[in-house]
TrEMBL record:
Belongs to the cytochrome c oxidase subunit 6A family. It comes from the Eukaryota. InterPro entries: Cyt_c_oxidase_su6a (IPR001349), Cyt_c_oxidase_su6a_sf (IPR036418). Pfam families: COX6A. Coiled coil: none annotated. CDD domains: Cyt_c_Oxidase_VIa. Keywords: Membrane, Mitochondrion, Mitochondrion inner membrane, Transit peptide, Transmembrane, Transmembrane helix. This is Cytochrome c oxidase subunit 6A, mitochondrial. It is found in: Mitochondrion inner membrane. GO terms for molecular function: enzyme regulator activity. The lineage of its organism: Eukaryota, Metazoa, Ecdysozoa, Arthropoda, Hexapoda. One of its GO terms (cellular component) is mitochondrial inner membrane. Gene3D superfamilies: Cytochrome c oxidase, subunit VIa.
Length: 109
């Protein structure tokens, strides 16, 4: 019984090894089939993943777009201007967004 089982296992391992040697994996000097796998992965995995990330970002933006901005509370330790910014009127940062960023005296109207 063990001889039959041993023979079946050796046949299976030999057939598996022969199949793996003729697959699309790059073998020394053989580069013919590997690009097809990456091309398919790019089109069927990467492009849909980027699309899902774009959809997620858009939906999160729409969700937060409807919320009112929080009430301004003037804290002494926030928005301190010891020195004026070297551009514009000197009170707004370089990437100032009037809808989100408050000035030291409150939001812009």
């Amino acid at each position: 019984m063990s001889a039959i089982l041993n023979h079946a296992i050796r046949r299976h391992v030999g057939a598996t090894a022969a199949r793996n040697m003729s697959g699309t994996a790059a073998v020394a000097g053989e580069h013919s089939g590997g690009y097809k796998v990456w091309k398919r992965l790019s089109f069927f995995v990467a492009v849909p993943a980027v699309g899902l990330c774009m959809l997620n970002a858009y939906l999160k933006h729409q969700e937060e777009h409807d919320k009112p901005r929080p009430e301004f509370i003037k804290y002494d330790y926030l928005r301190r201007r010891e020195k004026r910014f070297p551009w514009g009127e000197g009170n707004k940062s370089l990437f100032h967004n009037p809808h989100v960023n408050a000035l030291p005296d409150g939001y812009e109207h």
